[in-house]
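P.,

For your records, the input lines for the assembly:
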Amino acid sequence: MARVRKTVTIRDVAEDAGVSLQTVSRVVNGGPNVRPQLRDKVRASIERLGYVPSLAAQRMSGSRSYIILAINDRERTLADWRERRGTDWVDQMLLGGILTCSQHGYRMMVELVDTHSDHVERELGAALSALQPDGVILTPPHSENRLITQLLAERGIPFARIGSNVTGPGIALTMGDEGAAHLATMRLSELGHRRIGMIAGPSQYSLSGWRIDGWKRALAEVGLSSEGLLERGDFGYESGTRAAQALLDRNPDLTAIIASSDQMALAVLEVARDRGLRVPRDLSLISFDNTPIVRFSQPPLSAIDQPIAETVSRAVEQLIAREPDGDDDAVIEVAAGLVERASTAPAPAPARA
Amino acid sequence: MARVRKTVTIRDVAEDAGVSLQTVSRVVNGGPNVRPQLRDKVRASIERLGYVPSLAAQRMSGSRSYIILAINDRERTLADWRERRGTDWVDQMLLGGILTCSQHGYRMMVELVDTHSDHVERELGAALSALQPDGVILTPPHSENRLITQLLAERGIPFARIGSNVTGPGIALTMGDEGAAHLATMRLSELGHRRIGMIAGPSQYSLSGWRIDGWKRALAEVGLSSEGLLERGDFGYESGTRAAQALLDRNPDLTAIIASSDQMALAVLEVARDRGLRVPRDLSLISFDNTPIVRFSQPPLSAIDQPIAETVSRAVEQLIAREPDGDDDAVIEVAAGLVERASTAPAPAPARA
DNA sequence: GCGCATATTGTGAGCGTTCTCAAGACTTGT
DNA sequence: ACAAGTCTTGAGAACGCTCACAATATGCGC
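Structure tokens returned:
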């Protein structure tokens, strides 16, 4: 017998308050020219009836859809999702994105796109047509994908690229990779370390380069050399093992390592253990990402915390605030922080002092 | 000079194919009475123009919105999100939900709701009004929240409750908690363990009870006692420490523990280490959840893998397939599996045999 | 070949909102 | 007190699609 509750529409509110539809619409959207007295009356009606505008109808008539679409890598989330960088990305994205969206009356939707597919344009195009989002957020590795950025530019949809600092179409937001690597390196230097190794990510990620830059800049500032102290991995565990081996083989005097992902850092931990090096006593270690896994290793790792949630949140704000025809394609940097746990300590006294 | 690309509408397709709007609509929706010849012609036009129906317009006119709304706990995702169970939930939900939705032409949206807030009804009600989803998916701890289920029932929106086996309004989907606990217990028994402890979750989660049930059933089946072998935690690390301490204090002869979350299991690992108990030689350990963190502990943990993605996927299918007035509120069980790693081993020989 | 059932196509209304534009109610300056 | 504003409100069209129904075409039995 569940009586089908008819949806409360703007018309119901208008009748209840004795005004026109348009006036209600103005009140709902914070329109400028409504007498306070009337406004309050309408607000009361809205409250009483529990009116909430229909997103679909708003999209139909107005120029906005109140939808922000976030594009994520399908591969990372599907097949590979446990094997690689961990999955914190999606969570944090949602965290930052959904909350910020809802603060502005927007909604966030997630679209999973497989970069390797040659249907990228079709898939994404279909999503754009169906949803007609007011803005799109691109996450790595899509952030600098030509096919995608071009498609978005063609359609005139504002978009933000997370983890990119290339000016170009769309807003770029970096998570301060250069600064973060600099910060980590400086901290290790403060602790007395003179030989600080770096395990960077793959070169197709531009953030890998920025991190190397930050590390080198810091080394230069304190008069240290980076000679022979750089290795690369692919963010995964195995690559971390190889890189750590190489680094330690080549530099017996190494006392600190910065790893470009938590998983690679955990690999370093394992390699160190195998060689009888105690962390942090013999070897200090700082990782990037600060995913939950690093809190439970032995010892818990000091890590650069990627402000993903905040960055996405900023991206959303930019997209929402942006005038439809605004072309100020800025680069925004959100600073990362260092969370110190038990994998960093003062450098051991040199063997022969 | 970016020419604003006008959206391709159903009208464009109709003109291009030389038919009426209605015919195009029929083709798009797989309507029954269209001559194959015409259908192909229309399809060709759709293809050529790249037409994709607008979700908003479909919602406006038709009875469906093609939106499934997933309700998640805000607390877990916001403040507490690192401290408690880990965040794999959201990822896996998205994984299972988004893909399955898109296979059926649906979209999934995520709504974060704070159970502890007294605005639950308001918040959720607003989301329902704005989105008018065709179905809602409830995840723990919302799955059996009266306020929420009642609201949904009132509005006549079909919903699925994940991690619930209570028949009632809506479809219930359990992840085989009873069976999983039984499986874990039996496995430990097979390995020769006779004293198998259980660290359960908080009692307000009904799955906590089911896991206890499965554990007890297995113990009974092989003639073991559960006396004094049960502790409770809140899924978080600290609570796991306390529970492990209590369990080991009370039962010096304990050789195996099942923990109801990965974090609690990691706490057990730590406690064992402190007491000089080696895992798995002296103590076997199986956890629930199988989040990424358990692959990198020392040793990596054997864990019950929660088929969250699959369960959500099933939920989506149920919601989509369901007739608007169908009331067959079934309970569906998706079986969990045991992933064995290095934290389980044959029971040590009794001290005095 | 006629009449009726059935398959196929088209027509017009309506979903809930915002847009554009016009009308009425106040101000203000002189 | 009058013209010329500015502020406030409302009316009607429009967004892109599907619904219910009407119209036409096709098939079948006799």
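Two observations worth noting. Residues 10-53 of chain B form a domain with the 434 Repressor (Amino-terminal Domain) fold (CATH 1.10.260.40). Chain B has three domains: 10-53, 67-175+308-322, 177-305.

Regards
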